[in-house]
Amino acid sequence: MRDPLLIRPYTPPARQGSILFFIQDIQRTTGISISYSSNFLHLNKKIQLTGTEHTTGAVLNTILQGTGIQAAPVNGKIFLLRESSQTQYYTISGFVKEINSHEIIIGASIYDPVTRKGTVSNAYGFYSLQVPDSCNSIVFSHIGYETVIQALPPPDEGQLDIHMTARNQLQTVIVSGENDSVTLQAGYINMPVGYVSNFPALLGEKDVLKSLQLYPGTGSSLESSSNLLIRGGGADQNLYLLDGVPLYHTGHLFGLFSIFNGDAVKDVSLYKDAFPARYGGRLSSVVDIRTKDGNMKEWHGKGTFSPVSASAELEGPIVRDKSAISLSIRRSLVDVLYGKRFHDRYGKYSLYDVNFKLNQVINSKNRLYLSFYKGQDNMFIPGDNVILPLQDDYKFAWSNITTALKWTRVINPRMFSNTTATYSRFYNLFSQNSVVPLSEIDSIYVNGKGVSRIRDIAIHNETEYAINSDHRLSFGGGYTYHNFAPTAYRTNVHAGDATQREAPKYYMSEFTAYAEDELSLLNDRLIIRPGLHFGALAQSSSFYPSLQPRVMVRWNMPHMQYVQASFAQMTQFLHQLTTPVINLPTDLWVPSTENIKPERAFSYSLSYQKQWANNWRFNANLYYKQLQNIVTTNTVLNIFDNSDLWEKKVISGNGYNYGSELLLEKTQGKFTGIFSYTLSWAWRKFARINSGQMFPYKEDRRHNLSLAVKYRVKPRWNLSASWKFASGAPFTLPAQIFPDFDWGRNIYGYLDGRYQPNGGNVINYLPYIAKLNNYRLHAVHHLDIGTTIYLGKGNHFRHIITGGVYNVYSRSNPFIVSYDQFTLFTYNDFYPLQLYQYSLFKTLPYLSYTFKF
User: Fold this and answer.
1) Are 267 and 200 members of one domain?
2) Does residue 802 lie within any of the structural domains?
C-alpha cells in the first residue's frame, strides 16, 4: 500500500518547468515538506509533464525519472534520496581562453581530482568533461599558463568558460599569451609561436619550421633551409595546413625562410606518427598551423625591422567581446635598400606576406572565422651578373593564395562541430631570355616561359562527441575539387613564329571520411585510439579508393612514464616530381593518373617517455616505415618540359625508412635547453634506376644532432646558443667520363657559355654513372649565438632588441655541389674530374628591433 503522502491529490499549475519549480509548488499547495540535496539534484533541469499526473507521487516520479533519485516518505515528510551506490554525472563544457586577449588556448588540460579523469581543449579551445555530482572543483592547467582551480557552478547553468594567465609573464615587456613552452608526446609536438624567439635564427628571421628542426626526427634538405624532412621522407610528403587549408609550397628564397610569418602564427602542431584519423593525403608528417584570432578586448600592434625584412602586426576588437581582426604584413627590404646598380650586377629579389583573420562570435555556441593569406616571391637574375656566368636572363615568380571560412558550433555540451570551406592556389612561373649568336654580327633572341598552377576548392567537417570521460568519438569527412595544370610552355623567337604547348588540365575530385574512437581503460592506465581514414581520388580515366587504418596504444606507468606504440597507413594521391640529384625551383606537382598510382606508407613506431617534477623530460623512439609506389624521374623534369610527355618519364618504386630518436629537454627555469639525436636510414629501389638495386635516398642523413640552450641572465635579458650537425647528403659521382663524338647532338662543340662557338676543337663529354648516391657530401654543422633584450616600462610601449651571430666559426657548409671538366680536349691530355662546392653563408651577424604597443 502506498504512503498517503504520495497519493495526495495534486494537479500541477503548468506542464513545463524546472525540477525546483515543481518541488516548491508541491510544498506550497499541499503543505508537504520535501527534503533534498542540491549537490546531486539538478534543480534547474527543465521538465515536460505528460498531463496525466494528478498526485504528488505521480509528479515526483516524472520529474525524477532518469536521475537515480527516489521519493521516500518518512515521518510525514518526503525525502528525495539517491539510490544506493549510484553516482550521478553531468557534463561541463566551454572554452579555455587567455585572460587579456580572449585568444583561445589549445591543448589545455582539464582535470577532475575526484575521479582523476580529464580531457584537453581542442584546436578551437573547446572542452567537454563529465563530472560526478560529488565534484566541487575542476583543475585547468597548461604548461605555458598559470593553473586555475575553478569551483563548479550548479548544473544546467550553461557553458563554463575559463580564462588563464600566461605563466611567469613580465608585465612590462611581454605581451600576454606569448609563452615559450612546448607540449611533447610521442610522435607529436605542439609549439606556441613564442617558442620561436628562444634561440638564434639566420639573419634574425624567426621561423616556426626551423624551430621544429631542433627536435629529433626532423631535418632540412639544405643548410639553413626551412624545408622539413621528417624521418627520411621527401619534402612533398609533408601535409602543411594553414588554418585548415593545404599548402603546396612553403618556402621563400628557395627555402631559406618559410612563408609562415611569426607575427601571424599562434600555434604549430607537428605529427610524425600516431596520426589522428582526420588527417590524410601525405606520407611523412602533418604540420597544422593556426593563426591568431585577434584580441577581443583592446588594440595592440607590433613592428619589426632588420636589414633583411620589415613586418607589422595589428589586432583588436571591432565590437568588444563580439568580433576582432588580426592583420600581419611582412616584406623583404633587400630590393629597397640596395640601388639599381646593385640589382644590375647581382640581380633583384623581393617577397611579401599578408595574413588577415576575422573572428566573429555569433553567440555562446556559434562562431565564424574568415582567414586569408597571400605570399609572393619575385627573383630576377641577369645573365651578366658577377656571381654566376649564366649568359641568359632568368626570372622566377611563385605565389600562394589561401582563404578559409570556418564555422564552429557547440551542438550540445558533449558535441562540438567545425565546418570549413577553403580555396587555395599555387602559381609558379619561370622565364628565360636567351641570345643565340648566328655570326659575329647576327643573333636570334629567344624568350621561353613556363607556368605551373594548382587550384583547390574544398569543404570538410570535423565533429567531436564525448560519450563520457573514458570514451570519445570523432568523425567527419570532406570533398576537394582539384584543378591541376602542371606545365605550360611558350617560346617566342625574334623574327619567327611563337611556339606554345598548353598544359593538359586535370580536373579531379577527392573524397575523405574518417572515424576515430578513443578509450581510456584501467583507470586511465591504458589508452587505445583506433581509427579509420577513407580517401578516394576520382577523375575521368581512373578511380583510386583507399582505406587507411590507424591505431595508437599508450600505457601510463608510475612516476610520470609511459610507453606508446602506433601503426598508421597513409596514402598520397599527389606527387612532386624532382630530379634525382638536386631539388629545382621548377619541380612539378602532378596528380595520380591512370598510369601513376597513389603512393602508400605503412608506419610503425614504439616510444618511451619519462618526465621529472623538476621540468626535465626524456624521449626515446624507434620507427620503421615501408613505402610503396614512390615516384621519381630519371631526368631533369621541370616546367619547360613538353607538357604531354611528363607522365611517360615518371618511374615508380618502393622504399624503407627506419631509425631511432633521442631527446633530453629542460622546459622551465632560468636555464632551458634541448639535446636531440637522430640515427636514421632512408632507402629507395626503382626497377629502371641504379640497375634495380637499392640505394640511399637523397634525403638520407645518417646522424642528425641538435643542441640548443637558453639562459635568462635577468628578467629582461636572455642569452642563447645552438649547434646543429647533420651527416652529408648522398651524392652521385660518375665512375668514368669520356668524350662525346656525336657531333649531331653537339653541333657547335662547346659545353657552356665559358666556351666560344668558334673554338672548333672543344667537344662535350658523357659521364658513366655506375651507382646512384655512391658518395656523401661533407657534414653540415654550425654554431649560432644570440641575445634578446627587453626595454620599456608600463603597458603602452615596449621594445625588443635581438642580435647574434650565425655560423660563429665560419664553417663552409655545402649548399650546391657540381662536377665539371673545363679543359680543352686533345688526344694527349688527361682530364681529372673536378668537384666544386658552393657555400651560402659563413660568419654572419644580425640585428633586429621590435616595438610593441
Assistant:
1) yes
2) no
Range picked from 201-205, 311-315, 468-472 for highest mean pLDDT: 311-315
Statement: residue 105 has pLDDT above 80 = yes
Asked if residue 108 and residue 78 are part of one domain, the reply reads no
Q: 1: buried, middle or exposed (CB in 10 Å: 19+, 13-18, 0-12)?
A: exposed
Q: How many residues does the chain have?
A: 853
- The last residue of a domain, from among 290, 322, 345: 290
* DSSP-derived secondary structure letter, 648: G
Instruction: Look at residue 827 and tell me whether its pLDDT is greater than 90.
Output: no
pLDDT in tens, 629-674: 998 876 655 545 545 566 777 888 999 999 999 999 988 888 888 9
Q: How many CB atoms lie within 10 A of CB 547?
A: 11
Same domain membership, residue 76 and residue 32: yes
CB of 653 closer than 8 Å to CB of 686: yes
Contact 265, 291 (CB under 8 A): yes
pLDDT tens track for 692-730: 889 998 888 899 999 999 998 888 888 989 899 998 888
The alpha carbon of residue 415 and the mean position of all alpha carbons in its chain are separated, in whole angstroms, by 25
Whether 189 and 272 share a structural domain: yes
N- to C-terminal Cα separation, the chain: 77
DSSP string, 432-499: EEEEEESSSS-EEEEEEEEEEEEEEEEEEEEEEEEEETTEEEEEEEEEEEEEEEEEEEEEEETTS--E
Task: Output the CA angle 254-258-262, nearest 5 degrees.
Answer: 155
Q: What is the largest CA-CA distance in the chain?
A: 125
| Structural domain includes residue 235 | yes
193 and 139 inside one domain? no
Question: Of 264, 290, 316, which closes a domain?
Answer: 290
Check whether residue 49 and residue 142 sit in a common domain: no
- According to the model, what pLDDT value does residue 388 have? 52
Residue 22 belongs to domain with CATH number: 3.55.50.30
Which residue in 569, 691, 682, 698 sits closest to 632, CA to CA?
698
Cα separation, 241 vs 231, in Å, equals: 19
Q: What is the DSSP string of 151-219?
A: EPPPTTS----EEEPBTT--TTTS-TT-----EEETTEEEEEGGGGGGS--GGG---HHHHHTTSTTEE
Residue 247 has a CB neighbour count (10 Å cut-off) of 20
CATH number, residue 145: 2.60.40.1120
What letter represents residue 317's amino acid?
A: P
Q: How far is CA 673 from CA 168, 618, 629, in A?
A: 18, 12, 40
- The verdict on residue 765 lying in a domain is no
CA distance linking residue 275 with residue 286, whole number of Å: 8
Task: State the Cα–Cα distance between residues 767 and 151, nearest whole angstrom.
Answer: 76
Question: Hey, what amino acid is at 838?
Answer: Y
Give 720-771 pLDDT, tens digit per residue.
898 999 988 888 877 777 665 554 444 444 444 433 444 444 455 667 777 8
Please count the helices (runs of H) and the strands (runs of E) in the chain: 6, 54
Task: Calculate the CA 455 to chain-centre distance.
Answer: 20
Domain annotation covers residue 195: yes
Pick from 9, 49, 52, 57: nearest CA to 29: 9
Q: Tell me whether strands 238-242 and 285-291 are parallel, antiparallel or unpaired.
A: parallel
Q: Are residues 209 and 279 in the same domain?
A: yes
Task: Write the DSSP assignment of 543-557 as a string of letters.
Answer: EEEEEEEEEEEEEEE
C-alpha cell read off for 436: 643565340
Q: Which residue stretches of 261-392 are H helix?
A: 334-337, 340-346
Residue pair 24/73 in contact (Cβ under 8 Å)? The answer is no
Answer yes or no: do 192 and 282 share one domain.
yes
Sheet holding 145-151, edge to edge: 117-120, 109-112, 137-142, 145-151
- Total number of domains constituting the chain: 3
Give the domain CATH number at 281. 2.170.130.10
Domain of 94, in residue numbers: 89-164
